[in-house]
Amino acid sequence: MSKTALVLFSGGQDSTVCLAWALDRYDRVETVGFDYGQRHSVELEARRTVRAKIAEGFPDWAGRLGEDHMLDLKGFGEVADSALTADRAIEMTEKGLPSTFVPGRNLAFFVYAAALADRRGLRALVGGMCETDFSGYPDCRRDTLDAVQAALNLGMAQDFVIETPLMWLTKAETWALARGLGGTGLVEIVRTDSHTCYLGERRTLHAWGHGCGTCPACELRARGWEAWVAAGRPTLGPESRP
To answer: Are 22 and 5 a contacting pair, CB within 8 Å?
Structure first.
């Protein structure tokens, strides 16, 4: 029986590495993106570019890369108002979370992804969530996703597995994993073609990629790059775990 996966693919650094990780081990990999009214909607354009570059640069993976799906969740974005979906300052809230936190975003993403996976016959749901280098979002934690996995399987009579290959990696180790999976070619796709900046800034190309350089997403990405370079750009193999 073939191994199949659906990657929650935003077009950012983490989901790009997750896509490569899935293509390295699954027979058929499809992707799904979500338009939830995000301010950095340029990431939706980056998705197409990254998929095309991976297919062009990695012929073995191209044969495994299946359909891409784009789901409209703008209504959810309007309800879960945050600095990612409205023109608001990025700051810490009274709950101790960044104002970029979109309440329940990953929970909603996995519900929609699971419904799509059920229809498409895909078993693994792959997401780039991480609680090692992250902004403190509670829906990025592995215990949250374990609960989501259990609820989806109970509610849909399925046996989905939520895979989070970056969960225990630092951002530096994510860069190292990219190199281990696809060499400098994949690192360059992540660096120049993926998009992570919350403000949608792509005019400036830094050593670590495009971005404003000051939002939380850019700061995490830049620090990870600098730590990886300082360590001599080591390689983390696809099967490695910290």
So the answer is: yes
- Digit-coded pLDDT (tens) for 62-118: 999 999 999 988 876 566 555 445 455 444 445 554 545 567 888 999 999 999 999
- Residue 232: how many other CB atoms lie within 10 Å: 6
Backbone angles phi, psi at 164, to 5 degrees: -130, 80
3-state secondary structure 9-48: CCCCHHHHHHHHHHHCCCCEEEEEEEECCCCCCHHHHHHH
pTM of the model: 0.89
102 token code pair: 């979109």
Q: Residue 69: how many CA atoms within 13 Å on its side-chain side?
A: 19
Instruction: State how far the Cα of 160 lies from the Cα of 169, in Å rounded to an integer.
Output: 23
Domains of the chain: 4-171 (3.40.50.620)
Alpha-carbon distances of 24 from 65, 209, 237, rounded to whole Å: 10, 24, 11
Residues 42, 161 contacting (CB under 8 angstroms): no
Beta bridge partners of 5: 29, 124
